[in-house]
Amino acid sequence: MEKRVLVLNMDHSPIAVVSAQKAIVLTLLEKANVLTTYDLLEIRTVSRSFSYPAVIRLNEYKSIPYRGVLLNRLNVFRRDNGECQYCGSKKQLTIDHVTPKSKGGKSSWTNLVTACNRCNVSKGDKTPEQAGMLLRIRPFKPSLSYFLAEYAERQASEWLPFLHVKVVES
Q: What pTM, to 2 d.p., does this model score?
C-alpha cells in the first residue's frame, strides 16, 4: 500500500493529502519543502534515491476557500467511531436526529448521531431526555484536522505533530 503525504500551507495548516510522486514533484520544483519523512522507506529511480516524504510544507501561502467537512452519513459514522451513541453497539447502525425533525430538529453536525436500529426505534419521536436515554458523547462539528488525525493514528503517525489534537467534547 502506498503511503500518502500530508501537505501543509505556509502557515502550517493542513490543506491536502497527496501521493508521494506529487509531493516529490512539488519539492523538486522548489514549491514545497519536506518537513518529515517515513522511516525506512525510500523512492528509487534509475539514478537517484529519495527519502519517502510524510509531510511537506508549501513555500508560498495558497489561499484555499474553507470547505469544511462534508455532512454525510459516512462522516457522521466516522466522527462517532461507528458506534451507537446511546448503547455503544456497532451493529445495524442508522442516523438519528437528537432533536426529532417533527420538533424542529435540523440535519446538522450538532443534531445528528450514529444510533443502532434498536435505540433509534426505542427513542422514536422524542428527545433523548424524554426517552430517558443518555448520549455517550455530545455531537460536534469535526474539522479537517480531526479526520486527518484519525487517519494518522492508524496509518501515518509522522503527521501527528503537525495536526491539531483531537478533542472530544463530553
A: 0.69
